Amino acid sequence: MPLLDRRTLIGTGLAAATPGLALAQSNLDWVGIKRLMQGPVLGWCATESAAVWTRSSGAWPVCVEFDLDPLFPDPRRTTVQLADAAEDFVQVHRLEGLKPGRTYAYRVLVDGKINPDDQGLEPYRLTTPAGAPARFRLAFGSCARRARYPVQPIWRAVETARPDLFIWAGDAVYADSLDPHILAEEYRRQRDLPEIRRFMAETPQFCIWDDHDYGLNDQDRRHPGKVAALETFRRYWPNPAAGLPEAPGAFFQWSQGGVDFFFLDVRYYRDPNQDPNIAGKTMLGAVQRDWLLSGLKASQAPFKVLVSGSGWNDGKVEGADSWASFTHERDAIFDAVMAADVAGVVLLSGDTHFGEMNCLPWSERGGYDLYEFVSSPLAQDTVDLYLTGRPVMRVRQAFSADVNFGVVDFDMTLPDPTVRFELRDEGGQAAWPAVVVKASELHPGVKSWPGKLDAISSRRWAAAGRGQDYFGSARP
Questions:
Q1: Across the strands, what pairs with 302?
Q2: Angle, to 10 degrees, between the axis of helix 19-26 and the axis of helix 3-17?
Q3: Alpha carbon 417 to its chain's center
Q4: 66: closest CA among 56, 81, 55, 51?
């Protein structure tokens, strides 16, 4: 008798002798364990609602259960969604009816059961921001290369800093491929790191892209895979918005605690870096630039934070991959800001592979000083390119001794609100003394930079004859 027939007969005989086994065999569900592959990731978190991202192992019904009490005596659930292979089984769940300034426990249910891989780890927690102007902390960084750094200890230090939100300021992954499946795989590999799992589940995550997560190094509007790259970016990052109906892109606005944030897409509409740096050359494109200026003019927030993957300063040579190759557009934006009496603009960026604190001294042009805080890298090689580059003005000396992240503390409860900038290394130690800027210092006609420079920058300023040599003949 063939082996297959013998096994069939044996199985049939056992089933006949054991009714329970027969019932189990008839109910066999050949689908494996229904679970999450990645996530949960906490996206935006508002005063009364929040977004949680998940990716399941198949086309299962998934929802999020949440309660103020971590024992879940009276839980609420998000709408059950059926994961779809066309969306890579990715879902974004909206938690509604939350209360400002409260901490909620939550857990993910896959086909009505707690995600099995979370048992013992859940519940996760999220805290909604207060509705009024508040004291809060953001952390940010850029450049996380999972293939080169499969272990990333810095996330322990970031989590220990207890930020209220985290900003990925470009190069969250290094895809460097036209294939959207490779890009998606890089997102998944980064989120699989055990040291980042709980942090991403409990701290609101916001992301803007730069070249490596856009798809190709130093790429611009000509990138042939940009439409697919944007679709993948939007699928994997639960940002509150992405672009406009008439202008696709990754840019969006967010407000929290009395601060307005403008996340800029510096890739989708970017002209080639090597094009002549003349009027008309654009990094943002006309629609995004108008969106930004309109949003800044409408904002009543004491601080308006502009997040760019590319560095705002002039440290790189013209033709390189930064705003130094787009100074006509950059300067026109800042001149328009000052002419419209828009106060409170501060700058965040990444990309450089060393930490920086710079200033664009627009007070010398009748405006106010624009402070740029740069954090890079989170998990990538550091470099010493700052030795040859010259930003307009260094407030703190460039830091390349270690990977790093930025900590930005806002105190919007003060009569004169403040923002405090600090750079920390992999162990969570400060790289240099923090810089504090008051809202009153960011108004046209106010010069604040002389009191912000560290000792080295002050000595260089004095030795250079008020900067004629050090900063360039046309700079202060």
A1: none
A2: 120
A3: 24
A4: 51
Architecture of domain 135-463: 4-Layer Sandwich (3.60)
Q: Directed axis angle between helix 327-339 and helix 286-298, to 10°?
A: 30
* Structure confidence at residue 6 as a pLDDT band (50, 70, 90): very low
Q: What percent of the chain has pLDDT over 90?
A: 84
Give pLDDT, residue 388. Answer: 72
Q: Report how far residue 97's alpha carbon sits from residue 285's, in angstroms, rounded to the nearest whole number.
A: 38
Residue from 284, 450, 434, 446 nearest 359 by CA: 450
User: In sequence order, what E strands does 193-285 have?
Assistant: 205-208, 252-256, 259-263
Same CATH fold, 135-463 and 36-127? no
pTM score over 0.90: yes
Lateral strand order in the sheet of 404-411: 205-208, 165-169, 135-141, 404-411, 418-425, 435-438
What's the CA gap between 360 and 461, in Å, rounded? 15
CATH label, 36-127, candidates 2.60.40.380, 1.10.10.10, 1.20.1250.20, 3.40.50.1240:
2.60.40.380
pLDDT of res. 29 = 61
| Residue corresponding to tokens 């450049």 | 143
Read off the pLDDT band of 18 (50, 70, 90): very low
Structural domain spans, the chain:
36-127, 135-463
pLDDT category at 249 given cuts 50, 70, 90 is very high
Give 283-298 pLDDT, tens digit per residue: 999 999 999 999 999 9
